[in-house]
Specification:
The chain has 14 helices and no strands. The protein is mostly helical. The chain has a single domain, classed as Orthogonal Bundle (Farnesyl Diphosphate Synthase), CATH 1.10.600.10. The two termini are about 35 Å apart.
């Protein structure tokens, strides 16, 4: 069957992903009623705006022509990002609303289980060889280490000494690692060899960076300005710093700090970030990451039915919205 878009695939498979998550919760057993209720509440609270849970389905289908065996990995993707997004909101200190019916501590505990224990239980239940099952479990564990490393770098960002390379290193952890994890896992389940699995991981890593750049733009376009409120060193801010004369970098760093509590400072910083030279630099690098993702897809090849949807995901992530 031909799927014109990744959205078409998601519409067809969304109920299967939900059923996989429901089964994972049910399999916790009757003694875990509070856990099921808390995780269900968190899942309802952290609704994903974009259905990127189709990514492992498309990778598996590109390798084998069928996406069905990767549905559990889509459930893992939803569970992982439900946890990560909630923890990220808590770390930022802005917009972290407690899910209805849950206390703050309950939601925190639910997020820990949603991102770690439950995904591990899902992959441990898969009918695959022991070596593959163990590798899938290791992917989840290692991803959390890399993602937390990236998040910590993000939280500790030094505005005055920031660089584009330093921001990419943080993005590679907090966003590249989880997407690289899920594409590598899909390749493993498909039976792909080590070389192709690592190539799919590389694609996921680049896609994750692109998606973080997309999120950065969307934050400004939406008017939420969470990055400005948090003093986050985004890639766009790094571009602005590198386009700023050395003698003015300290002033831009001061403005970034002031933007945490001043609407006027946020407006001034926003104008600086949207200056044409900064946007040109940002767009040039955005296109370079997009072209790298295209290159990897071209080298990987696979079932031609599903490759266009993977390219469409790249196009979605690589859009230049701040024009």
């Amino acid at each position: 069957m031909n799927f014109p878009s990744y959205l078409d695939l998601h519409r067809q498979v969304a109920s299967d992903i939900d059923a996989e998550i429901a089964a994972a919760l049910e399999n916790l057993g009757p003694s875990s009623a509070a856990v099921r209720k808390s995780i269900s509440g968190l899942l309802g609270h952290q609704q994903m705006k974009y259905p990127l849970s189709v990514l492992p389905l498309l990778v598996h289908a590109a390798e084998t022509g069928t996406w069905g065996p990767a549905v559990p990995l889509s459930a893992v993707h939803v569970l992982w990002w439900t946890s990560a997004c909630y923890l990220d909101d808590l770390a930022d200190g802005h917009g972290a609303h407690t899910p209805d019916g849950l206390g703050t501590d309950e939601a925190l505990l639910a997020s820990v289980l949603s991102g770690q224990a439950l995904p591990i239980r899902v992959v441990q239940a898969q009918p695959v060889p022991d070596a593959v099952r163990n590798a899938l479990t290791g992917e989840i564990v290692n991803c959390w280490i890399d993602a937390v490393e990236g998040q910590l770098r993000d939280l500790r960002g030094d505005v005055e000494n920031a660089s584009r390379d330093a921001v990419v290193a943080a993005y590679r952890g907090k966003s590249g690692a989880p997407f690289g994890m899920i594409t590598a896992m899909a390749a493993m389940v498909s039976g792909a060899g080590t070389e192709r699995t690592e190539r799919w991981r590389e694609f996921g890593d680049v896609f994750g960076i692109l998606w973080q750049l997309f999120n950065d733009q969307e934050d400004l376009l939406s008017g939420r300005d969470e990055d400005l409120l948090n003093g986050t060193v985004t890639y766009l801010l790094a571009c602005a710093l590198e386009e700023t004369p050395p003698e003015s970098r300290a002033r831009l760093a001061e403005l970034s700090d002031a933007a945490r509590g001043s609407e006027q400072a946020r407006a001034e910083l926003r104008a600086t970030l949207l200056a044409p030279p900064v946007l040109r630099r940002f767009e040039k690098d955005l296109c370079a990451f997009r072209d790298e993702a295209y290159r990897l897809l071209d080298e990987l090849g696979g079932d031609e039915t599903y490759l266009p949807a993977l390219r469409q995901l790249v196009d979605q992530a690589a859009g230049m919205c701040l024009t």
